[in-house]
Each structure stands twice: as C-alpha cells, then as structure tokens.
Amino acid sequence: MSLPLSREFTVAMHERAIDRCDDLVELRDMAKSLLRIWQLQASMSEAYGAQLLKLDPKETFGA
C-alpha cells in the first residue's frame, strides 16, 4: 500500500531532518516518540475497527 503524495512529501521532509541529526540522544528520543505514536495509532485503528464492526475491542484485541 502506498502513501498519498502529500504524506510521501511529509515522510521525505522528516527523513531529511533525521539524516541531518548528529545527536544520538536526540535520535533516540525521536525513535521512542515515533514508536509510541505508531502504537497509539495502531490502538486507535483497532478501536475504530471494532466500533465499526460492533465488537468489544478488549475481547477482540486483548487490551
């Protein structure tokens, strides 16, 4: 699945910012933030999908 062009542009912009970063602590903090955001998005997608299907997300996804 590919991203829409506007999202591809955003990804490329952030990739360049990461490439320019020389601070290891900053890169670690950024990676941790991205991991947390990724998992939050996954949880929200699961909950929304369960809501659409009229399922209990706790039973379906083991929350």
Task: Describe the protein.
The chain is mainly alpha-helical. It is 79% helix and 0% strand. The chain contains 3 helices and no strands.
> What structural class should be given to the helix and strand makeup?
mainly alpha
- Unreliable stretches (pLDDT < 50, length at least 5) are none
Shape: elongated
* Mean pLDDT across all amino acids: 88
From the alpha carbons, calculate the radius of gyration and give it in angstroms: 16 Å
Per-chain topology:
Blueprint: H1 5-20, H2 24-52, H3 57-61
Question: What are the main properties of this structure?
Answer:
63 residues, mainly alpha, 79% helix, elongated
Short summary of the structure?
The chain is an all-alpha fold. The protein is built from 3 helices and no strands.
